[in-house]
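Re: that chain you flagged

S.,

Sorry for the slow reply, it's been a week of failed gels. I finally had a moment to sit down with the sequence you sent. For the record, here it is as I used it:
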Amino acid sequence: MKLPIIVVASLLLFFGAGAGAQSPAREIPDFTFFTVDGNPFFSKQIPKDRASLFSFFDVTCTHCKTTMKTLGDRYADLRSVSVYLVTLDGRKEALDFVKKYGPQLINKKNVTILNDLNKEFLPKFQPQQYPSVYVYNRYRRLELYEKDERKIPYIFEKIKGL
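Prediction finished late last night. Pasting the structure tokens below so you have them in one place:
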């Protein structure tokens, strides 16, 4: 059964407005994601001696492509932080996406591509849209949240101070 366009538009507006009212997680929440190798990755595995950057992306999102490209191009500025690239998409799709748009991030010791198979990211981190980038300090507290891919270059200034 097809829904009339006005009903679909109303539902999107209703649910979209609720999502926009969310506040990003102030501290890194407990979670279980999975590496592209299929291994569980727990929040307790995050190093405590450095800042962490989480980039939430979708492989079909144009803005996510721009964000991934910026993160890859500026990898030298990310060496001092733990980088987590998180998606709801499948392992192969996620890996292909990062290889295509952020190849400089592949096989780096401080970069981990994670699949959110249990769909925990949305309720726990509360992103407002794709892409969403979070910078947490070594005490696991939020320093910066950015959802506008045009402002992603500003995160590198914040990282220098952590």
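What I noticed first: Residues 33 and 116 are 5 Å apart (CA to CA).

Talk soon,
D.
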